[in-house]
Design goal:
The structure is a single chain. The protein folds into three domains: 147 residues, 3-Layer(aba) Sandwich (Rossmann fold), CATH 3.40.50.150; 152 residues, Hnrnp arginine n-methyltransferase1 (Distorted Sandwich), CATH 2.70.160.11; 48 residues, no CATH class. A hairpin with a 6-residue loop joins β14 and β15. The longest helix has 27 residues. α7 packs antiparallel against α8. It has nine helices and 15 strands. The structure holds S-adenosyl-L-homocysteine. The site of S-adenosyl-L-homocysteine (SAH) has 22 residues, from α1, α2, α4 and β2.
Amino acid sequence: MGSFVNSSRNGGGGGAVVDKGVDFAQYFCTYGFLYHQKEMLCDRVRMDAYFNAIFVNKQHFTGKVVLDVGTGSGILAIWSAQAGARKVYAVEATKMAEHARALVKANNLQDVVEVIEGSIEDITLPEKVDVIISEWMGYFLLRESMFDSVICARDRWLKPTGVMYPSHARIWVAPIRSGVGEHKMGDYQSTMDDWCDFVDETKTYYGVDMSVLSKPFAEEQKKYYLQTSLWNNLHPNQVIGSTAILKEIDCLTATVNDILEVRADICSSITLENTRFCGYGGWFDVHFRGRKEDPAQQEIELTTAPSVDNGTHWGQQVFLLHPPIRVSEGDNLSVSFSMNRSNENHRLMEVDFSCEIQPVSGKLIPRFSNKFYIE
Ligand code: SAH
């Protein structure tokens, strides 16, 4: 997951009620390409985590009925079968289902794995399942809103004693330093310089004054260059303060309502001497723990935290401040966070940060707010 490319800058889309045709054109279309499936299949951290989760905890699979929500290439369904599942229902909304079916057959698992092409919301299964496995995580965990579909599957098809793979998820944030902000500001400024030349020339050569559009153009470009979160592979030494959890999700019990909006008040203290607070870095992790009454033999973690050599295709999301703020070791950030779905496209997110800085020495920096778009 995390490879869905938003085709328009502004999200576009069909209003609050999800239009299936629009959703297919905007969201599902990318998953129909082997190219995108391969990107996920090449993410070693992701692959190792799911592989280990399944094969280290074979007892959850042997002789059991498994549902793979969004099977894509079929990889998780195939592993579940190889771990001894009695039956695996592998549901995929896109035409990738045909490739998954071919892969299952080529690996001689067609008697165990049944690939079903359709939305998990629409299909019916002949029985309830012991395990739901899915790789539903988007950038910053919740982008793509695919967990809704996993919840729907769980509520319809998981036995009361069933197990979720993964079983838990968390969203993390930390203050960071980065040089990217200056580049983005430079890009924004040169775009605005170019606009000024354009306004002058249009007036001179064509006799029309465009300057009334300068403000909306600036707003549009500001949103694009300065307020859109960035994909980044942060080095751990770019994290300049303590990390904090924004959200914890128990996949067995969470409801759509629980994830529609994420709100948190957190504190972070700066851990570096005299540095620049350039923005916030956000990431997630998920865990495979089984369930309380039926725990995993060994808990497996999949983390997308900043790392020197274990980067994932999810990287981290970076939310930049313009300009950065000087901070020093021991300074305290008190941050209020909220994340909601975009009105135009329920799979994209809008994020608000507000922050007050209590420095160890010197004057308090009063609360300031920043809005961002995860596109
Ligand atoms: N399980 C695969 C693919 C993960 S990507 C792997 O781990 O490699 C997520 C997949 O879920 C995509 O192929 C997407 O098309 C599919 N998907 C997303 N929402 C779905 C839904 N509601 N019903 C069926 N498939 C869905």
